[in-house]
Design a protein that fits this description.
The chain is mostly beta strands. The protein is elongated and about 60 Å long.
Amino acid sequence: MPVISVSDAVIVGLSSERDTTFVTITYREEGRGRGREQTVVLVAGSRTLILNSNGIPIPAALLRIGMTVSATFSSAMTRSNPPQATAFLIRITGRGTREETTRGTILNVDRRNRSFIMSRERDFSNRIQMNVNEDTRIFDCGGRQIRFSDLREGMEVRVRHANFMTASIPPQTTAFEIEVQCRR
C-alpha cells in the first residue's frame, strides 16, 4: 500500500475515542513553488508507532496541540473534509507551542463545530477562525470560568492562541484561552 511521509507538520487538533486517537495535522505539500498547505486527520490506533524526539515509543496521550511532527500514513484517505488516513508512524520533532494573543470582536459562533470567527481589533476585514477544544479555558470579564455556549456575537475577547494558522479563508488556529473583555 502506498504511503505518504511528511515532515514539519504541526498538530492542530487532538481527540480520542476508545483506543483510537485522532491527530489533526497541517503540513506543506511538496511540489511546485512553496507547496499548498494540507490538513489531514491521522487515525492512530494500537498499531501506530508514536515516538518522542529521542525515538522512544510513547503513548498518544503525550501528544499536544502545537507540537511539530513527522508522520507516515496511508495514501488511502476518506473523502471527508479534512480527510482521514491511517497513521503508521508519528514522531515528535519539536515541542514548543508558541503562542500569540489577539484582541477583537466575535462575529459568528459555530456551536456545532466549536469555533468562532472574530475580527481583530479595529480591523473588521481581518478575520480569524478560532477553534475551541476541550482544553481551551474560557473566562468571563470577572475571571470566572464559563462554557463555550456562553460566547455570543459582539463580545469583545482577548484570545491566547497558537502562532500558526491554516492557509484557509479565513485562517484558522487553535485557541488556548479566551477572556471576555468587560465593556467600558
